Amino acid sequence: MSEVLYERDEVKRARYALAAVFAVHGAVTGSFATRVPWIQDHASVSAGQLGLALAFPALGASLAMPLAGRISHRFGARTALRGLITLWTLALVLPALAPNLPTLCLALFVYGATAGMADVGMNALGVEIENRLGRSIMSGLHGMWSAGALIGAAGGTLAAHLGSDARLHHVLASATLTVLGVAACRWVLDLRPTEDEEPPPRFALPPRSALLIGAIGFCAVFAEGASLDWSAVYLRDELGTSDGLAAASTTGFMLTMAVARLVGDAVVNRFGAVRTVRAGGVLAVLGGVLIVVAEHPATAMTGFALLGLGIAVVVPLCFAAAGHSGPNPSQAIAGVATITYTSGLVAPSAIGTLAQATSLVVSFGLVTVLAGGLAGFAGVLRAGDKDRPKVSPPSAAVPDRRP
Questions:
Q1: Which member of 24, 72, 194, 388 has the lowest number of beta carbons within 10 Å of its beta carbon?
Q2: Which among 345, 40, 20, 27 has a CA at the least distance from the CA of 174?
Q3: Residues near 382 by Cβ (< 8 Å), separated by ≥ 6?
Q4: Helices 166-184 and 138-161, axial angle in degrees (round to 10)
């Protein structure tokens, strides 16, 4: 990467622009998650069929995520992110248009593919900005994702309460988010490869040192994906609530995640990654237990809120630890990202399949068990504690180079 200099103020501005992109990405997820019951009814699919359909985003993401690095290498980081975030916001309209199971599977395949590519592009730029500023910012960026998801979920909750057609809701949301995402990309860093720089590999297999870190991330993201896509269905089907109140449970889950991530950098800097994740694991288990034993909607909603609070900062800390886990940080981060992201997309399908065979109560019992793994195996994140970025002295400019 060439040694073009960026003023420190430009890097800070790029951070805020990227935070806005994270928020747009999250808003798409929130808009979709709160309307899953409507989409299920519109496509006339059972819980098991919905679980099957929700496996297709995982397949689409797994096949498409390796392409994000090559797209960025060819077009530059700014242009690539602008295109990828546009594809993702436009893909929001597809699931609600599906009239049956096959078309829903196809729509969710495209939805997952665009989500994965945009996510890889955002996080790669986030790591680069974090390195340039010399302090942790990833939790805050993910907090903006959660804040965006909360805003999207709030809109979805209102639309569900009013009985709005999800097709119209998602068309309007998609148009708005596309404009915001493209506008924010104007100020992100425009990183470009040198002439002799080789394109990134098509697939990054995580090194052995990153596998346990990926397993921690897997547990957290499994719980997140299950809650995002099934919390509304859980309240409606298991506790007999209205669609509006069911959607509100998803909103509460996202609210606690957003708050925890926005303050996460300060907490981690004070207590360290290991203690933070252990405490979060305890909260997540408590939340899972409340969900499983709930006989009243308020109990289940409290459980989902605690679950979100407990798992909120795990993924950013996994990326930080992976970057210090071996001689090839970029490969480790890419591998952990693949494990965690695939977990979030596989989780809804696994929950639906288990629910079809048993019940949603049993499915969230599994989520509770996996949440316990956070407390038990948090020690694998010690690399992030030892080598966490320190604040660098103020400088006039920051060189344009990749780690």
A1: 194
A2: 27
A3: 273, 274, 321
A4: 150
Return the structure tokens found at 74: 């060819």
| pLDDT reported for residue 326 | 59
**Residues 92, 96, 98, 103, CA torsion sign:** positive
pLDDT per position as a tens digit, 149-165: 889 988 998 998 899 99
Say what the pLDDT of residue 195 is: 67
**Rounded Cα distance, 377 and 395, in Å:** 39
**Using an 8 Å Cβ cutoff, are 290 and 306 in contact?**
yes
Distances (CA, A) of 223 to 11, 21, 232: 34, 24, 14
Residue 199 burial by Cβ neighbours in a 10 Å radius (0-12, 13-18, 19+): exposed
What would the pLDDT profile of 329-351 be if each residue is shown by its tens digit? 556 666 787 788 778 767 877 89
pLDDT of 169 reads 96
- CA–CA distances in Å: residue 89 to residues 59, 110, 174, 175, 268: 19, 11, 5, 8, 32
Residue where the block lists tokens 């180079």: 401
| Nearest alpha-carbon partner for 145 in 319, 24, 244 | 24
Sign for the CA dihedral angle at 9, 13, 19, 21 comes to negative
| 377: nearest Cα among 135, 212, 155 | 212
Helix (H) or strand (E) holding 398: strand 397-399
pLDDT at 395: 40
Q: What is the pTM of this model?
A: 0.79
| Tokens (6 digits) for 256 | 């606690």
User: What's the rounded Cα separation, in Å, for the pair 33 and 29?
Assistant: 6
What residues contact 323, with CB distance under 8 A and at least 6 apart? 127, 329, 332, 333, 384, 387
Average pLDDT, the chain: 85
Most distant CA pair in the chain: distance in Å?
63
**Which of the given ranges, 134-143, 260-269, 367-376, has the highest pLDDT on average?**
367-376
Per the DSSP assignment, residues forming a β-bridge with 6 are: 398
Q: In whole angstroms, what is the distance from residue 238 CA to residue 358 CA?
A: 13
CA distance 395 to 397: 6
**Residues paired with residue 7 on neighbouring β-strands, in sequence order:** 397
User: How far is 378 from 275, CA to CA, in rounded Å?
Assistant: 8
Higher pLDDT, 18 or 387: 18
